[in-house]
Amino acid sequence: MEFKKGATSSGLLSKFEYDFSLWFCESDEEVALHISQLLHEHGHKGFVELQDQVGGALMITEITNVIQQSKVAIIVLSQSSLKNGWCRRVSEWNLQQYIEKGSKVLPVYVDLETVQIPPSLRFINGIGYNSRFFNKRLLDSLKPRKKLF
Fold it and tell me: Is the C-alpha dihedral spanning 144, 145, 146, 149 positive or negative?
């Protein structure tokens, strides 16, 4: 992966082009818009699916590149997205990046019970969209991880 010479929200040079990428189904656009606005208002640079995709680009290549260039991949999961083959595929690509490269994946659950969450994502701490502390937890999730040693 190539190191980018752009500054992130922390002001430091980073190998990532984006602080976050946001993946969602069209039916979850209102939730995605709220997430995107909140993060942009707090100075985070992001790629928002459906909004930032470039016409004429090979989608699989573009998505793979964006996933690799994002510090955190935020995946909005709802009843609709779980039924949509494309949304499931994008979730799998993000999960693969998490497993292979240690990239951070943040599932955002919209009106889902634990038993409805795909088994492959149950081991990742997600955030319930309707939870009382959603905004705080979302913003905290984009802060750099503290080193233990």
Answer: negative
